[in-house]
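Re: the request from the purification team.
They wanted to know what the chain is likely to look like in 3D before they choose a buffer screen. I agreed to run a prediction and write the result into the notebook, where they can find it.
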Amino acid sequence: MTTQVATARFSVESVHSPDGTVISYRSVGSGGPALLVVPGALSVAEEFDGVAAELARHFTVHTIERRGRGASGPQGAGYGVDAECADIEAVRAATGARLVFAHSFGAFVTLESALRGSAFDGIALYEPGVSIDGSVPMGWAPEAERLLAQGKGAEAFLTFVRGINPDTSGKAPRWLLRIILRFVMKKPERLRKHALLGGAIREHAEAARLDNEYPKYAGLAAPVLLMVGKDETTTGAGRATVRLAEVFTTSELVRFPKLDHFGYEKDPAGVAGAVSTFLRGGGRPAAQ
């Protein structure tokens, strides 16, 4: 945790999405242009406090607590990407945000929201969870759901970790991944991931359902910053990010060769710096 996170003052507010669901969001900073932050699957808004505090040097930052977690309402029986887009637009309209930074699945629904008319003047995305040629696989989901139904959250999460990236974590034996996960994640974080996994399955299913529809994003007018970590050739999210860069007429691809899919946690200042330079420069190349 950086010093700025420790001293930054976050406030929590909420809006109602069109279907009546309460959507909470965390705000920090004042005086700068409003910037919306959209977390990915298996994440809560508070996990973005580090990068939000860094972004707050130049923006008033509002991190959405996506439905199905925290103080926001449940995903709902009719859950789908349309609901996620409506949530984003509700918070965007309430805060006046015309800039956005999003991660993974949050980046996918941000693109969908922009396509549906959300008025963003600048879009920054870290390894978007857009499915291209099956880059969001779902073969692991039935087994994960079965294990969740049996109350085996840890084993279900292990199934997800192995299944979502078959070329990397998928090659590691389960016994080894158990040890690694206990080493890299503290117990409260692991338990939070287990609790969010059921919702994450539905989220991933929505991304997979729209597999190979990505050419439609070429119609977006706002400049787009795409950021990718060291696994651009070995993970679905990495490969999809590079492919997306070919679609946009106004875009920039920035590589972070020392960071993984969760670069915003490992180096919040570095990621925030690239985002700030791009968005403050009106869509010009981001410096590293």
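For the purification team: The domain at 3-134+211-280 is CATH 3.40.50.1820 (Rossmann fold).
Please add any questions underneath this entry.
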